[in-house]
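Action item from last meeting closed. Structure (339 res):
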């Protein structure tokens, strides 16, 4: 006997482009009602059309996630128009590609306010509604960089580390209270998203994701799965994420040296940085009068559409011995690279 699934009310932040855009489509394909939170009106309008075409209901709310009051008001509007929120996906972020000493204090502040505090404000808005009902799921979209900092992304890595710590604390509190509200985190690999077209960069050459590169739909499928299975504390998506986190656990000092040698060139294309490129740190580049960047970036010819995760996350018991062996192999490879 087939039991018909009840459509859910889902909030996706950073929904106008990249992973957020792909995630909104993935929820919509199941018939869910999807509230789209982002700054860029042109991107939001296009996301609304895609959600409705995919079979879901859409509600676009222009909001800066660094504004706590605006986030609370957005949550109020979602429940007024769609009803109680079942799933809240924190995804919005900002970043700067530059050496630490070349990032201005206000740029660090802005990156932190959007990428970290935006998650805090979104989580608080969701919990204020979910806790009284004792129902709901919060998905924190993370990154391998939540555990492993890399050169040229100190502002972003710091914010992702902060999200990881905040989410672990919150999870412990929910477990202590015996709450049925769940929070889980999805650690993502390098993705082909528009951020490499619009992020502020002071590198001599244009930024790129560190290969291997995955399409944003890989992330979207994992986020939807995590929303449906939130008892797992986190999911590692992509072989590169697994390898990075294992290497960092086994031999972090060696990984420091490896990234010092390879991390600068791996994050830059062969094209020189040009003056006048889009920068969305302060103002959205997909706002009215701007350009709709969509979900994909410039690396479709290099990006893959499948990953071994979340299968590996779901079958972690069977993979335990393989992970230990892989960790030993990674450590050995890093030692060889050091020589």
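Sequence:
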């Amino acid at each position: 006997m087939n039991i018909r699934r009840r459509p859910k009310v889902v909030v996706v932040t950073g929904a106008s482009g990249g992973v957020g855009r792909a995630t909104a489509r993935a929820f919509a394909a199941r018939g869910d009602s999807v509230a789209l939170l982002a700054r860029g009106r042109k991107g939001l309008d296009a996301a609304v059309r895609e959600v409705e075409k995919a079979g879901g209901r859409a509600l676009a709310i222009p909001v800066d996630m660094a504004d706590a009051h605006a986030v609370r008001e957005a949550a109020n509007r979602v429940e007024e128009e769609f009803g109680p929120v079942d799933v809240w996906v924190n995804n919005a972020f900002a970043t700067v590609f530059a050496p630490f000493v070349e990032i201005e204090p206000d740029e660090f502040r802005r990156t932190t306010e959007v990428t970290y505090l935006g998650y805090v404000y979104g989580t608080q808005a969701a919990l204020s509604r979910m806790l009284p009902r004792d129902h709901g799921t919060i998905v924190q979209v993370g990154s391998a960089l939540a555990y492993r900092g890399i050169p040229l992304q100190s502002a972003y890595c710091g914010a992702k580390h902060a999200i990881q710590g905040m989410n672990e604390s919150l999870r412990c509190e929910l477990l202590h209270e015996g709450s049925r509200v769940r929070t889980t985190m999805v650690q993502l690999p390098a993705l082909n998203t528009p951020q490499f077209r619009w992020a502020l960069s002071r590198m001599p050459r244009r930024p790129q994701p560190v290969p291997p590169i995955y399409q944003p739909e890989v992330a979207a499928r994992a986020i939807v799965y995590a929303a449906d299975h939130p008892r797992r504390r986190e999911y590692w998506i992509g072989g590169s994420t697994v390898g990075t986190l294992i290497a960092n656990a086994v031999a972090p000092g060696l990984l420091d040296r490896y990234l010092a040698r390879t991390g600068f060139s791996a994050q830059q294309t062969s094209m020189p940085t040009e003056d006048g490129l889009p920068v969305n740190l302060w103002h959205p580049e997909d706002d009215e009068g701007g350009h709709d960047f969509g979900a994909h970036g410039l690396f479709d010819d290099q990006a893959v559409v499948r990953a071994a995760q979340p299968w590996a996350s779901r079958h972690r018991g069977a993979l335990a011995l393989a992970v230990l062996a892989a960790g030993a192999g990674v450590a050995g490879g890093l030692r060889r690279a050091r020589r």
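Note appended to the action item: Residues 222 and 279 are 29 Å apart (CA to CA).
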